[in-house]
Design goal:
With 171 residues, the protein is an alpha/beta fold. It contains 5 helices and 9 strands; from the N terminus they run αβαβββαβαββββα. The chain has a 6-stranded mixed sheet. Strands 1-7-8 form a 3-stranded antiparallel sheet, with no helix packed on it. The longest helix has 12 residues.
Amino acid sequence: MVGASELVLMVHDDLLDFDFDEIPLAKTSDDYYTPKWVFDALGLEFDIDVASPVGGISWIPAKRYFTQYDDGLAQDWGGAKVWMNPPYSRPAPWIDKWLENANGVCLVAASRSKPFTELWNECEAIAFMPSNLKFVSGMGKEAGIYMPTVIAAVGAENVAALKASGIGFVR
């Protein structure tokens, strides 16, 4: 008999063999994935994508990922180099955990919220993304969002990669 944790691993392994268009992604208003060109510009490999759809995303250079079923917030990131594009409907706990982890790159919506202000003040590097940024929707299509977004970095290697990426003016 297969246990629940083994079943989750089997499902994840099976989904990795699908093309992006065939992955049964969750369809929510938060399903907007970072386009490949961002990762190409950064030139980094991450240990964990902490807010991934089921099956992962093939162009995100992460060794492993946490999905909504794994609950990335409940997992121990352990100082690993993380990529984070969290659910924009509830970014506060994600930003807090990312800052606490102190190693990675994140993409979040700019806002006047307390968590964003903390991100702005505490990250080591931050840049506004181009205003015409197109994400990849949960349906695999290009999709813009109405909010401005930033990309932020903590950790020396990540900060250097963001500064060298050409994505935008980095402070």
